[in-house]
Structures are given as C-alpha cells and as structure tokens.
Amino acid sequence: xxxxxxxxxxxxxxxxxxxxxxxxxxxIASMMxxxxxxxxxxxxxxxxxxxxxxxxxxxxxxxMVAAPFVVGxxxxxxxxxxxxRFYAAPIVAMLGTYALGLIIREAVRGLIGGFYxxxxxxxxxxxxxxxxxxxxxxxxxxxxxxxxxGLCYLLLSRTSFGLRVxxxxxxxxxxxxxGISTPLIYGATFxxxxxxxxxxxxxxxxxxSLFADLGLRFLIQxxxxxxxxxxxxxxxxxxxxxxxxxxxxxxxxxMAPVVADVLVFVLAIVFIKFRPQGLIAGKGV
Amino acid sequence: MxxxxxxIVADADDEVDGAMADGAAAERVNxxxxxxxxxxxxxxxxxxxxxxLAPLVLQDYLTVFATRVxxxxxxxxxxxxxxxxxxxMSFGQALFxxxxxxxxxxxxxDLNITNIFLVLPAGTLIGLTFALLLGGFxxxxxxxxxxxxxxLGTLTGSYAADRLARGWYYLGGQNGIPSIAPMxxxxxxxxxxxxxxxxxxxxxxxxxLLCRFLVRSQFGLALAGLRENEQRIAFFGYKAxxxxxxxxxxxxxxxxxxxxxYAFHEGxxxxxxxxxxxxxxxxxYVLFGGSGxxxxxxxxxxxxxxxxxxxxxxxxxxxxxxLGLLLLLVILFRPLGLISFVxxxxxxxxxxxxxxxxTRNAP
Lengths: 285, 363
Known about the structure:
The structure holds two protein chains of two kinds.
Chain A: H1 2-32, H2 39-55, H3 60-81, H4 90-112, E1 126-129, E2 132-135, H5 136-158, H6 160-170, H7 172-177, H8 182-208, H9 214-229, H10 235-254, H11 257-274
Helix pairs in contact in A: 1-5, 1-8, 1-9, 1-10, 2-3, 2-4, 2-8, 2-9, 3-8, 5-6, 6-8, 9-10, 9-11, 10-11
Chain B: H1 2-17, H2 23-28, H3 31-57, H4 60-85, H5 93-110, H6 116-139, H7 147-167, E1 183-185, E2 188-190, H8 194-215, H9 218-228, H10 230-235, H11 240-266, H12 276-289, H13 294-315, H14 319-333, H15 345-349, H16 354-361
Antiparallel strand pairs in B: 1-2
Helix pairs in contact in B: 1-3, 3-8, 4-8, 4-11, 4-12, 4-13, 5-6, 5-7, 5-11, 6-7, 6-11, 9-11, 12-13
C-alpha cells in the first residue's frame, strides 16, 4: 500500500513536470504553428538564472520569480528579431530555432563548464503522511503546475488578450482587419511560451540539477507530447503531456527501464500515425 | 553588346568544356543559364582534384582526419538526397548511419567477418532496411503525412535508438563497442592511412556519380517537383508518397554505407552515432554547403569539419556558438547555402534533356 502510494506520487510528480515543460511548447505550437526547437534552451536558461541567483547569495525563490520574466523578455526580443521571419515555412522555423537553441546551449555550457551544478530546494524536507514520506518540493511543483495550468486556461479563455490570441490563430487576416495587431500578439504569445519554459526550468533545477543538456532531455519528449495531444488547442498538448509523462514514469515500474524508455516513443509515434489530429482535435482553447 | 557577351561566353564555354557547348543552342540560351551550366562541373572537378592530391601534401594524422571527413561527406550526401531533392526533413539520418555502424561492428566482433565485400554490402543493407521500415511507416499510408510529423518522427526514432543503444548491454551500453578489427581484403588489412583514404574517396566518387545520374533522371525531376509543390506532382498522377519512400530508402542505404566505413575507420562505435547529435550534424553540413546540389553537401561537410578541426585548438569552447550563429545567418540570408555564391538557381535545379532546355529558354 505504502509502496503503491509512493509510486503513484512519483508518477504524478513526473507527469506534472512534463506538463509544466510542455505548456509553453504547446502554446507556441498551437497558437503560432511553430515547433520551437529552442524551447529546451529556454528551460535551461530558467534553470541557469535560478542557479545564478543562488550562487550570488540571493534567496532561491527570488531567482525562481525572476526566471520567467527574464526568459520571457528574451523570447520577445528573439521573436521580433528572428522568429518573425520563419512563420511562412514550418521546417525552416525548426532549423532556425534549432540554431538559436544551439547558440544558447553552448553559451550556457561555456558559462558553467561540463559540470552538474546543484541548487537546493527552497522548500526542503518531506511531508509525512503516516509512515509515508513524500518530497515537499515535488509536491509544491505539482501544486504550482496545477495553478499555472488553471491560470493559462483562464488567460486564454476568459480575458480579452486570450480572445485576441485565439482570433489571430483562427484567421490572421480577419484579426488584422478587426484592428488586432497580429505581430504584437505573436510576439506576446511567443514571450509567454518562453516565460513558461523559464518557470519550468527554475522549478525543476533542484530536482534534476543544472547541466548544459538539461533542456535537450525534455525537448523530444515535449514534441511527442504535443503531437500526441493534438496541435491547435491549449488543452491538447496538456493532455498529451499528461499521458506521455505518466507513461514514461509508470512503465519502468512494470518492465525493464530501457524497454520502457523506447516503448513510450514507439507507442506515441504509432498513435500519431493513425490519429494525426491527436487526442483532442480542433482549434481554440 | 549582347552579341559580344554571347561570343565571349561561348568562347569560354569552348575552352572549359567544349563537349558540352552546342553551337546552335548556345545562341538561344541566355547568359545566366549558360554560365550556370558550366560552373557545376568546374566546382566538382576542383573538389575532386583537391581530394586526390590531399594525401600527398597532408601529414599522416591529417590524412586520417581527411578520411573521416570524406566519410562524413558521403553521409551528408545521403541527407541531401532526402532533404535537398525530395524535401523530406529527416532529422534522424544518424539512425541509419549508426545502426549500420553497430551492425558491422557486431559482425566483426561476434562472427569475425571483416571482409570488405561482405561488411560494406551488409552495412548498406542494414541502412536500407531500417530506412525502408521507418520511411515506409512514416511516409506511406492512406493519408499523406505532414512534414512536421515526418521530421519529428525521424527525430524521435533517432533519439529512441540512442536511448536503446545506451541501455542495451549487448551493444556495449554507454561505452559502445570498442576496438573493432580492421576491414580486410584477402590478407590485407585496411588501417588508417592513404590506402583507406583512397578507398573511401573511390567509394564517394562512385556513389556521387550514381546519385548525380539519379537526380538528373526523370525520377530526379519528379523528386524536384515534389520538393517544390507536392500537390501538383500528385495531380500529374505520380504516386508522391511512393517516390518519397523510395528516395528515403536510397538515402538510408547511402547513410548505412557511410556508417559502416565510419565504424571501421574509427575502430569503435558508440551511442552518439545513432543519436540526435549526429543527426543534426549532418543537417548542418548540408545547409551550410547548399541543399539541393550534391556537391554542396560534400563542400559543407568539408568546410564545417575542417574549420571545426582548425579552430578546435584555440577556440574549442566558442566554436559551437559560432557554428550556431553562422547557421542562423545562412538560414536567414542564404537559404541555398554557400554554394549559391557561385552557382545560379538555374544550375541548381538542373536541366533535363537538351530539347526541353531549348524550349524553356526561348524568349
């Protein structure tokens, strides 16, 4: 019983991490039609900023709060300078964002060297329920993920900004004709997606520690999750991330980890092949 | 004025390759197309000449490095066929390269087979089989797959293979398979050096010529059409998906050949060889050099590897950053790669048959 509970918590917390990482990727993919290869590096930057704050002696939570704003601002600038040119051609966008990601990753590698740098958890210790102990920080991540998910949903479905974003997604020329500044909306959406990645990086750095290939590790999982969930909506990628995260955390409990690792990807690709629209089809929120 | 220019160009044409100059046609063909027609053979000839002379002027350790570059150029060729000619973004080309490498390494380790006439066809076949399976699955089917799906599917395949190789004890796990016996022919062992270099160069030239023939054929024309406008080619009655699967498989076979040569040249295989790093590396080569021209892929591999080798002593840390910046610049401002500085668009697309050429260029 206790074991099953711990396993369930592990699976839930890993699923939450994947959802958190995929949120930004999914918003950019769904709302803008771009598969952003630099997303993993935005996660890395978020982690790096948190580490920097810690190394400078600031409180860790200060770094975690700053990370999304800094990465979001960077995303806004990059969108205006570079990403903007890629909207017409999705494959070129992949290559261009890959190049951007390469630059960011190698720059961070140059700054931190080939090390694994640890950052302590801002909320340490464990929560005890009877004889069972669960990590307090992982529990916090689950709570924050749920909060962020809810806020994103409300932002896109209930605010006028969300309405503009959805209008731009559905029909850019009509949106422009209605007086919506689509370049600004694209910029803001990209910055928002980048900020979510920065937040994800900041929150997971105590769990995975900081190393240059941190983002790469999650990038492909993220892409697969977005495709499984379905591009075009907000809910789709989140659902896909839940499925992929849960599967990759749960399967190693019942089979050899190597097989489980590969099986998740094979299952996902087969699923997408036969259901290209993903779990949740359609556009909108 | 125009007549004078025609005459000058015609003169130059006669000098450089008289065989290709056709007096009557030359009058009608415009300058640019004519200039384009001549440049490609010159570039190819220069590259071949440089490659032939390289071991004579290079020190031994540089010849070994040059051999590796030639093998990587062969690998780049395979990606160029798939992306440059058919417009299929294969982010998992290393899957075929590396699996062939692992395959021949296992042949050498477990079965003691190192005969060149067995291992190279075996490697090619492994690459071909994997490409047929993956390409068939991703590209064929009732509904045509989206470009995004194919590129992410190949990327995922390569990543999954990397993870599998890392975790599978039989394949050596993280360490890969070290100290593979050298490739042999009769009693002769191919070890690093000029002999291996010329063997690899010979293979590259043969494969290059075969690819050149392929992309200049009717099949190649259909492929170029696919890249430019897939729907239109489908409306003409071509089975677009089949064409794509065929070229993808051929690309896999070439990658497999390159992978088996690489395994024997380096003497070991390791998980990175099937992984995303090598997959993206080959994308870099081809984008730099110029996709859609075979020689562009070769030049790209040589330049990227050469500069990287040259800078690695002093600027090892910042080289990947420079590489990323250059790649970004190429994508933004020179989508056709470095080769487009010397090669016209007309030449890149190619001309198919003398009669067509005349009618197309008629004013």
